[in-house]
Write a structure and sequence with these properties.
The protein has four domains: about 60 residues; about 50 residues, no CATH class; about 35 residues; about 70 residues, no CATH class. The protein is built from nine helices and three strands. A hairpin with a 5-residue loop joins strand 2 and strand 3. The longest helix is centred in the middle third of the chain and has 24 residues. The termini are far apart.
């Protein structure tokens, strides 16, 4: 059989990068790390040295990936009790890929409706982690109210290709300067914590909403920051002050 070169698709790279750090099973994290090193161009000998494994072990990982993909690589040869949910692995993965669950309780109910198998929250949590799911924060993607997400993405891509990148190229060539400008408003306040105490404690805090304002311009090429500050307000005059500072 010919030499097999490890080359991951973009989707596989995302999965391997996630699982080499956060998969709940140590042996899977180790295998994903080996696969990533080989994808990045390391030889099998060097990958074995970096991960403190034998050369034959690395070759077994490569063979498992070659023959069975990522699922084949995740396979663990140690025998033991197998969850009834394992038979529904693919449909559960598809279900939570399409619509993630808010809570483990919700996941239990949806899995029971989907498979007819009822399991305790601790068992479902362990099974979902084994699939690669993680409890993580949802991020906001600002989209103008009169545009769809598709339209917004296309508009941002057009701005990047036709407006921003050409200007950045000119800045790198020394023909212009590109500055990213924004303001930050820090409020003087008290950060409170929780304590194990018999009675609620009160600490003296600043009254009112006094702010420390920073209006800054960051040079996209040199990384230099030019800023003006005050404790009143950021307005047109503050912007003019920043422009005069840049001009000087």
């Amino acid at each position: 059989m010919g030499w097999f070169r490890v080359k991951l698709s973009e989707e596989q790279q995302k999965v391997v990068n996630a699982e080499r750090d956060s998969h709940p099973q140590e042996h899977v994290r180790r295998k994903m790390l080996v696969l990533w090193l080989l994808h990045c161009g390391l030889t099998r000998e060097k990958a074995a040295e970096v991960t403190c494994l034998g050369r034959a072990t690395v070759q077994r990982y490569v063979a498992a990936f070659r023959d069975g993909g990522l699922d084949g690589l995740r396979h663990w040869g140690v025998t033991g009790p197998v969850s009834d949910l394992a038979a529904h692995h693919d449909c559960i993965r598809e279900e939570f890929t399409q619509k993630p669950a808010r809570t483990i309780a919700e996941a239990c109910e949806r899995i029971e409706r989907l498979t007819g198998v009822r399991r305790q929250p601790s068992q479902v949590r362990k099974f979902l982690k084994g699939l690669g799911l993680k409890w993580q924060c949802v991020r906001a993607l600002p989209v103008p109210p009169k545009k769809t997400l598709d339209e917004h993405v296309k508009e941002q891509a057009r701005f990047l290709d036709e407006e921003l990148n050409p200007r950045l190229d000119e800045a790198k060539a020394g023909r212009r300067q590109v500055l990213f400008v924004d303001a930050a408003h820090m409020v003087f306040g008290t950060f409170l914590c929780c304590l194990w105490s018999f009675a609620r404690l009160f600490v003296r805090a600043a009254s009112g909403r006094q702010r420390f304002n920073v209006l800054g311009a960051w040079n996209a090429v040199t990384g230099q920051l030019t800023a003006v500050t005050n404790t009143t307000v950021v307005n047109t005059e503050t912007m003019c002050e920043l422009l005069r500072e840049l001009a000087s």
